[in-house]
Amino acid sequence: MKKKQKQIKRFIVYCEPCGFNKIVDEDSLNEFFINKTTSVSGGAPFIDIITKKTQKNKNLKRNIQVRCPKCGRGVTTKFVKEKSGDDEEKN
Ligand SMILES: [Zn+2]
Q1: So where are the chain's domains?
Q2: Ligand 1 geometric centre to CA of 77 (Å)
Q3: How far is the CA of 22 from the centre of ligand 1 (A)?
Q4: Nearest Cα to 75, choosing from 29, 44, 42, 41?
């Protein structure tokens, strides 16, 4: 019983000051993100430019900061957990 379904990661972009609120998938998010903040304290994960591999960090969190298209503030996104039993990020 396997469902072939591409897992799309979705994020909520919510800007409190101006009320901008949108759910975007990962691809769309890339269009207007300003930087990916992944818990900087305690050693941020990084991409090895030689091997092109992302160094896994147990503190990695899917907090991506984007610029609010409406007011220009930096907004932290929330990762939307899909309703599947698949839990790939166990640690
Ligand atoms: Zn805003």
Answers
A1: 10-80
A2: 12
A3: 11
A4: 29
